[in-house]
Design goal:
By secondary structure, the protein is α+β, with helices and mostly antiparallel strands. The protein folds into 3 domains: 120 residues, Immunoglobulins (Immunoglobulin-like, Sandwich); 190 residues, no CATH class; 88 residues, no CATH class. A hairpin with a 2-residue loop joins strand 25 and strand 26. Helix 3 crosses helix 5 and helix 3 packs across helix 8. The termini are far apart.
Length: 479
C-alpha cells in the first residue's frame, strides 16, 4: 500500500515538473502584448536659449496588441530616468509636465509604424542635457523597447546653418524653389521588369554616403550638383524650418529645395550608408547598410518625416528580401522566390498602401528587405531568383497575392479564418503533414515554409510545391 502511495506521489511530482517547464517555455516563446523598436533616428540637437523645436520619432509595434491614441490604454510619451519627472524642456503644448504627447496615428497594429511629435522649449541655462523619455500604455505599463534619449546642447547663439557665409573650401549654391514633382516607379508595361521604390527608414540625421563606384548627386529635377568619386564621402541633410536640403560634397556645399538623389553611373554599383546600422538577429555580424540602385532623400509632407528611399530594379529588390537562410534546398528556394516575387508585385500595384510617402513598399512592414549586403551573404538565394526570373503565381491569368509563413500545426488556414472577409479561391486549407507535432508560427495562410522545405527534400519540384499551397494556379513569366 505504501509503495502504491509513494508511486502516486512520484508520478504527481513528475507531472508537476513537466507542466512547469512546458508552461514556462510557452510563456517564453509567446510574443509580448506590448513591445516597441525604435525606427527613426534622432540626431544630437542644438537649440538657442528660449528656442522652441519640434521633435519627431517613430517606433515599430513589435507586440501583439494594437496601439491607440484614444481609450483607457492610449499610448503616449512620458519623461523617464527618473519616471514622471518634470522636464526643463516642457512646452505649453505638452499634456503635462511629465507627459509630452500621444501617439500621432489613430491606430498602429502589430508590425506597423507609429509616430510621435512634440515640442521642446529650451531653458535659460546653457549646457548639454540628456533628456530621457519612454513610451507607455496608459493605466497599464511602460512599453518594453520604448525608451529613448535626446542629447540637447543649449547655446546663447546658434549660427544659421542655412544662410551661413561661404566657407573656405567652396561656395554655397542655393537652387531656385520649384514645384515638386513626385517620381513614380513604372509598373510592368509590355513585359518589362519594373522599378520599385523601397522606403528604408526615417531619420533626422544627415545621411553619409560612400562607394567604391562613381555616383552623381542630383535633385529630383535632374539638376547635377557634384560627383561622388570612388571611396569619397558626401552627405545630405534636411532643414525642415527652411524646407531645403543641404548637400555636402568633397569640395563644395549646395542647397536644394527639391529632394535629393544619389545615382550610380554603372548598373553593377552599390552604395554604403556610413551612419546607418541594421542587423538581422540570425546574421548579427553583417551590417545591412549597402544598397544597389538609387538612394533618394525625400521629405514626406504628408507624414512630416524625412525618408531614405531605395529605387532599384525589381529583381535586385527580390534578392535583398531576407525571409530565409541560404543553406536550404534549391527547389525550396525557387518556390520561395516565386512566392516572394508575386507577393511583392501585388504590393507594387497597391497605390493606396503607402500613398503620400513617396515609395511603393516598406523595407520592414511589407517583406523584410536588407539590400545588397544581404545579397552578398546569400548566393544560393540569388541563384534561385535568377533561375525563376519573372515567374509569378497567377489565377485565371491574373497575378495574385501569395502569403507565406514559418510553420503551421498540421494544416494551413483560409483567408477568412485568419483575416476575415471573403475567401480567396486560390487560398484553401491544405494539410501540412511535416508540420504535425509543432506549434504554429505565423498567420497560417498560404505556404508553410517548414512543410515546403520538407517537400523539397523529398524530391518535390518548386512548381509542385507552389501548386500544393495555392490551389488552381499557374506559374507564368511576366517579363
Amino acid at each position: 500500500m505504501f509503495r502504491k502511495i509513494a508511486q502516486k506521489i512520484w508520478i504527481l511530482a513528475v507531472t508537476l515538473i513537466v507542466a512547469f517547464f512546458v508552461v514556462g517555455q510557452s510563456a517564453e516563446s509567446k510574443e509580448p502584448d506590448y513591445a516597441a523598436e525604435q525606427y527613426s533616428k534622432i540626431k544630437e540637437i542644438e537649440m538657442r536659449v528660449g528656442e522652441r523645436q519640434k521633435i519627431k520619432i517613430g517606433f515599430k509595434n513589435i507586440g501583439r496588441y494594437n496601439w491607440r491614441s484614444t481609450g483607457k490604454n492610449f499610448v503616449s510619451v512620458y519623461t523617464f530616468g527618473p519616471k514622471y519627472r518634470k522636464s526643463v524642456f516642457e512646452d505649453d503644448s505638452w499634456i503635462d509636465a511629465d507627459q509630452s504627447t500621444k501617439l500621432k496615428d489613430t491606430l498602429v497594429g502589430p508590425t506597423q509604424l507609429g509616430y510621435f511629435e512634440f515640442y521642446l522649449q529650451a531653458p535659460d541655462k546653457v549646457g548639454v542635457y540628456a533628456e530621457k523619455f519612454a513610451l507607455a500604455a496608459e493605466n497599464k505599463l511602460w512599453i518594453p523597447g520604448g525608451e529613448f534619449e535626446l542629447v540637447i546642447t543649449v547655446k546663447d547663439e546658434v549660427a544659421d546653418s542655412v544662410l551661413q557665409e561661404p566657407s573656405a573650401i567652396g561656395e554655397i549654391v542655393v537652387t531656385a524653389t520649384v514645384e515638386e514633382i513626385t517620381l513614380a516607379a513604372p509598373k510592368i508595361i509590355d513585359g518589362q521588369e519594373p522599378t520599385v521604390r523601397v522606403g528604408l527608414f526615417t531619420t533626422e540625421e544627415p545621411i553619409i554616403f560612400t562607394s567604391p563606384y562613381t555616383y552623381e548627386i542630383k535633385n529630383t529635377q535632374g539638376e547635377l550638383f557634384c560627383a561622388l568619386n570612388p571611396n569619397e564621402e558626401a552627405s545630405v541633410s534636411y532643414v525642415e524650418t527652411r524646407g531645403v536640403y543641404n548637400i555636402n560634397c568633397s569640395s563644395t556645399d549646395f542647397i536644394s529645395a527639391s529632394p535629393m538623389r544619389v545615382e550610380p553611373t554603372e548598373i553593377i554599383s552599390f552604395l554604403e550608408l556610413k551612419n546607418y546600422e541594421k542587423r538581422l538577429r540570425w546574421l548579427p555580424k553583417v551590417n545591412n547598410n549597402k544598397f544597389r540602385g538609387v538612394i533618394e532623400i525625400n521629405f514626406s509632407k504628408d507624414r512630416g518625416y524625412l525618408w531614405v528611399i531605395n529605387e532599384i530594379p525589381f529583381e535586385y529588390y527580390i534578392k535583398g528580401i531576407a525571409e530565409s537562410a541560404d543553406n536550404r534546398h534549391s527547389e525550396f528556394l525557387k518556390a520561395l522566390a516565386v512566392a516572394v516575387r508575386t507577393y511583392a508585385l501585388n504590393n507594387l500595384s497597391n497605390s493606396v498602401k503607402h500613398g503620400g510617402k513617396g515609395f511603393d513598399v516598406d523595407a520592414d512592414i511589407d517583406q523584410v528587405y536588407r539590400g545588397y549586403a544581404f545579397e552578398e551573404q546569400m548566393p544560393f538565394w540569388s541563384n534561385a531568383i535568377d533561375a525563376t526570373r519573372g515567374m509569378v503565381v497567377t489565377y485565371k491569368n491574373e497575378a495574385v497575392t501569395t502569403p507565406y509563413f514559418a510553420r503551421s500545426s498540421g494544416r494551413t488556414r483560409t483567408w477568412r479564418e485568419a483575416w476575415g472577409g471573403a475567401n480567396k479561391p486560390w487560398i484553401k486549407s491544405v494539410k501540412t503533414p511535416y508540420d504535425r507535432g509543432y506549434s504554429r508560427l505565423g498567420h497560417g495562410v498560404g505556404m508553410s515554409l517548414h512543410d515546403a522545405l520538407a517537400r523539397a527534400k523529398k524530391g518535390a519540384l518548386y512548381e509542385e510545391i507552389i501548386k500544393y499551397y495555392y490551389s488552381g494556379v499557374e506559374i507564368k513569366s511576366v517579363y
